[in-house]
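Troubleshooting log. The previous structure file for this entry was overwritten by mistake, so regenerating from the original sequence record. Sequence copied from the archived sheet and checked twice against the printout by T.R.
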Amino acid sequence: MKRLLIAAAACAAPAFAEEPAVNPPPTAAEICDAMAPIIAKGIAARDTDAPVFHGCIDWHSAVHGHWALFRIARATGRHAEAAKSADASMKPDLLEKEQAHLKANPDFEMPYGRAWFLLLAEEFERWSTETGGKDPKRLRPMADDVAASLMAYYAKEAPSPLTREYENASWALARLWRWTAVAEDKEKLRKVHEWVRQMKGLEAPEEGFAFDRDHPDFFSRFGNFAYLCATMYDDAIYADFTNRHTIRDEDLAPCVDLEDAAHHLGTNWSRAWALKALSNAADGEERKRFRRAFEAHLVQGMKQHAVSKDDYWAYGHWVPQFAVYAATDGDQEKAMADGEEK
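Regenerated output below.
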């Protein structure tokens, strides 16, 4: 089954924005409003022959495109029709075909796309329940299979914070942690918790946020590890992380002089969700320091959006979803969408 439309060779080099202007950060609602039409158009495209997730160039981007539309609808109270269209595309018989494909191809989208599917399943269940949907648990069978496959994957090779991009274990474990909590699978939850406690590394200054400036990754490797440790709701894990890692002020500024690579178009949004998580977990001046950095990344992200929004191949099929995650993730997503303070 054709799952990826290869077009990189035909793409022009992406354009990068300069440093952010000094202005107030955009609200989550403003970010979501800017991203929703691009995402809705992307998931409707026929870029591959996947039964459900055929838009947005590749399978994983189509998955997080669907997720983003449900999240936007929940966080803003708007764009309901886009969310309904995403819902309508996930017909049970087509989902069964997607599930069968994952079972028959255990290496497919392992772990990256599978981790995103867990987030989609969680978000869809919440959105469908809140809107009176008839089958809010429609994605659970496939999500449970995906979770089991990820657990088996990491049982064979212990997760490491050193992994990058599509292999990034920190992102996969963050998604496993959330899904096993939603599914109330205490055994899997305990095992994920154990894996996270054992993850160590990235302690040298050059392995921290500084790493992002000269490596063209779409994920902030250090940022995802920080995000994982800050969102486990475990004081011991977060304290161990902060004791082992010094985050320098000079490394908190958004990335501006980026390498000429499309993947770097998403780096600042990835850093942003980590900085927000660190701010939410910290106290006092540290909380304010991370919050200021988070807001600066939102400004830079939207400045980049203005430059790149019409470039579907390099940007439009995936970066808007990263922006939505950075803008809305966290317990206060609805308040933030309305532009309120915590």
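The chain has one domain: 21-337. Archived copy saved in two places this time.
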